[in-house]
Amino acid sequence: MKLNELTVSELRRLLDSRGTKPQEVLDDVYNRIDAVEDKVKAYITITKDAAYETAKDAEQIILSNKQSLLTGIPVAVKDNMCTKGILTTCASKILYNFKPPYESTVTACLKEQGYILTGKTNLDEFAMGSSTENSGFHTTRNPWDLERVPGGSSGGSAAAVAADECIAALGSDTGGSIRQPAALCGVVGLKPTYGRVSRYGLVAFASSLDQIGPITKNVMDSAIMLNAIAGHDPLDSTSAPAEVPDFANFLGQDIKGLKIGIPKEYFIEGMDKDVDDAVRSAVKKLESLGAIPVAVSLPHTGYAVAAYYILATSEASSNLARYDGVKYGFRAQGGKDLLEMYMNTRSQGFGAEVKRRIMLCTYALSAGYYDAYYKKGQQVRTLIKQDFDSAFKEADVIVTPTSPTPAFKVGEKSTDPLQMYLSDIFTISVNLAGVPAISIPCGFTKNNLPIGLQMIGRHFDEGLILTAAYAYEQSTDWHKRRPAL
Ligand code: GLN
Fold it and tell me: Residue 352: exposed, middle, or buried by beta-carbon count in 10 A (0-12, 13-18, 19+)?
């Protein structure tokens, strides 16, 4: 077995017992990247030289027994998190040359824990999409079937983890962008509670929904990565001063008597048959481990996608106003005055989906329409949050499919935005309510495509979803399968 195929916890043990050293781990990671990256295209920027520099330090740190959680572990980061002096493009032409003068809090945390950055991964431009087809640079391919998308927007991170082109990765999730690609690529993706992880240095899409989280090969690694990045940050006014437990302590606890809520609104017509079957078997499996299924209802689910696309895009149209060609990024040449320079920069720099959203919600926010759209969206958001509050009176964890379908073909939905938006039908409500959720592998379709199971928890109860996810994972071996590539 190659070192790049190991998990964070396995590598930690091996590095600490001097069974290998960080440079050897990197050798296997970059050999793998050389072998498959042409096909998978998970990365936008590969930071190989800097990685080997960091590995030298990591080796010394381990030799002096001063290692931290991630010392010497190669991790990939989605290209919408600022890394000081390292290209951070958000997969947008408008930021094609942007090297941030500062470090995001999450990557600063990973640094403090000794990680090695393998590179910056591909995404849908500004994280707007569900397939990476909206990337301004290239489309990432699903390692399980190269004709299919890896999901999105953190498709590069999920594909890199699934293809063993890194050990673990960070993604961001505004409406499903960690969980949906994790499901489509057969890996584990955790969206923490809103406020659990600092957003400082995450390029803003929709600030009231965005949250960073880990994409990993198993649940144990998810807990380890969350330990590394969770916590209050004075640089992010929305980060919560909540106590951070050691998430690894939640693994291995028994789930006897755990009430798992099954919302009827999440088992709908039009859902893929294999997905439906796999999720129902997963519920049976949880039951055999002692969990008690209870029927719950989240009655406003049907309005979630509509509310999300008003709220998220309204925030985006405001957040993206800063890209005007003046301070950083791309600037169009040839405008006769300042206004024309702005207009040319924005029309040439942004891709079609980003423009669609800016226009839609500049309209929705304009005088006279605000009450009809934005305010109504906020009211629906409150109802959706209340749905979860009531469901969590009956259930401890809510279990649903992550995505209604497995990975779809490249090009299959890219000309139909509405179909694309519906990919997130099971993940979006979670962001609107601000609760945490994890996606873990729960089976494969007849065509050998991975299927994801979503477990949703109460605010700041990542611990319990990790407990349930780990119990399920340990009784199955879906997470051990690797794509043939
Ligand atoms: N697919 C959703 C969108 O396009 C969610 C994206 C995300 O979570 N960043 O908005």
Answer: exposed
Which DSSP helix (H) or strand (E) runs through 59? helix 48-63
Block residue for tokens 């403090």: 112
Q: What is the pTM of this model?
A: 0.98
Ligand 1, pocket-test mutation among 81, 122, 126, 130, most atoms within 8 A of CB: 130
Task: Tell me 17's DSSP state.
Answer: T
pLDDT at 330: 98
The tokens for 119 are: 């590179």
* Cα gap 357→98, rounded to integer Å: 22
Handedness of CA 270, 430, 387, 419 (dihedral sign): negative
Contact between 444 and 451 under an 8 Å Cβ cutoff? The reply is yes
Q: Which atom of ligand 1 is nearest to the CA of 173?
A: 8
Specify the pLDDT at position 277: 97
Q: Which domains does the chain have, with CATH numbers?
A: 3-255+462-480 (3.90.1300.10)
Question: From the CB of 153, is ligand 1 less than 6 Å away?
Answer: yes
Residue 367 has pLDDT above 90, yes or no: no
Cα 469 from Cα 454, distance rounded (Å): 9
d(CA 13, CA 67): 11
State pLDDT tens for residues 56-69: 999 999 999 999 99
Among residues 247, 253, 248, the alpha carbon closest in space to that of 290 is found at 253
> Could you read off the pLDDT of 61-103 as tens digits, one per residue?
999 999 999 999 999 999 999 999 999 999 999 999 999 999 9
Determine whether the shortest distance from the Cβ of 427 to ligand 1 is under 6 A: no
Q: Is 354 in the pocket of ligand 1 (CB under 6 A)?
A: no
